[in-house]
Write a structure and sequence with these properties.
By secondary structure, the protein is α/β, with parallel strands linked by helices. The chain contains 13 helices and 7 strands. The strands form 2 sheets. The protein has a 5-stranded parallel beta sheet with strand order 5-4-1-6-7, with helices on both faces. A two-stranded antiparallel ribbon has the order 2-3.
Length: about 290
């Protein structure tokens, strides 16, 4: 069997904030509209982990129902968490009164915003799926990269319109492998889910090339630092996708994969970014 000698064999992508637009956009809009300090809601969600409503729904332990909405709202409305946010982020300011937060409304705004593909990441995934290598013995060509999704997600209520409109199918068809936290009962940054991901992309690679995949041969793109740190602990290389600057992550991915500048972008995009003075400013965070 011919060998693929390229260093990276598989690329994993987070979904929300990477393959699709970030629910953080909805959170930021909600905070602004309700005079909530920027970053508080994400702070509260993180503080509620690992047993808060958000963590539990991402592991598929509880359904979307009125009890979830109540628990999610309660997690966002704890005075000790509110006061702790001020101590960490605005230590010279006396905490204002705890605002009223509508967890149900916020959640569905997050879902609505994140039902749009990212304009840079999604085309890059499509281009990666088209890349092939010649087999050494001349026996045709095979795919160069396995492309997978590794997402902390949730199952929409039975009968909900988001289960019927086709977007979910389009999203899953973008990838060779789709690892959903709510389906496998574990979530990032738990070590087990990264090990599972390496195994899943390895199965696909082995079916193509007859070889195994090591964690060091996998790259992972995510918008949350602690998820990338979790990946790093098992040997997966990480690329941080910064809100509103996903094109930087695509550029960094090209570099990591040994591709030429612009290979993962649609025609004309790199030239436009350069003409806007953005290209070359800083770099994606690793």
């Amino acid at each position: 069997m011919a060998s693929n000698d390229y260093l990276i064999k598989a690329v994993l992508f987070d979904v929300g904030g990477v393959a699709v637009l970030s629910p953080m956009l909805a959170i930021a809009a909600y905070e602004k509209a309700n005079n909530i300090p920027p970053g508080y809601i994400n702070h509260a969600i993180v503080r509620s982990s690992p047993n808060g409503a958000w963590s539990r729904i991402e592991r598929g332990e509880i359904p979307f129902d009125h009890q979830f909405y109540e628990k999610f709202t309660a997690d966002l409305s704890k005075k000790e968490v509110w006061d702790g946010y001020y101590r960490i982020n605005i230590p010279t300011t006396t905490p204002s009164p705890m605002p009223s937060i509508d967890g149900k409304f916020l959640l569905w705004e997050m879902m609505r915003v994140s039902r749009n593909f990212d304009p840079y990441i999604a085309p890059a995934i499509q281009k990666m799926k088209q890349m092939k290598l010649q087999v050494n013995n001349g026996d045709g060509t095979r795919r160069r990269f396995v492309v997978g999704a590794l997402t902390n997600d949730y199952q929409f209520p039975e009968g909900h319109e988001y289960n019927k409109d086709g977007f979910k199918t389009q999203l899953r068809e973008l990838f060779d492998v789709f690892i959903s936290s709510s389906a496998v009962g574990m979530r990032k940054p738990e070590q087990r889910i990264y090990e599972l991901a390496v195994g899943r992309v390895g199965e696909v690679w082995r079916s193509w090339w007859g070889e195994e995949v090591k964690a060091s041969e996998v790259v992972f793109l995510d918008d949350i630092g602690m998820n990338l740190k979790g990946a790093g602990k098992v040997g997966i290389r990480g690329i941080r996708v910064v809100l509103g600057e996903s094109w930087r992550a695509v550029s960094e991915l090209e570099r990591v994969l040994g591709l030429k500048e612009g290979e993962l972008f649609e025609e004309g995009v790199v030239g436009r970014l350069k003409s806007e003075g953005k290209w070359g400013e800083g770099k994606a965070k690793l």
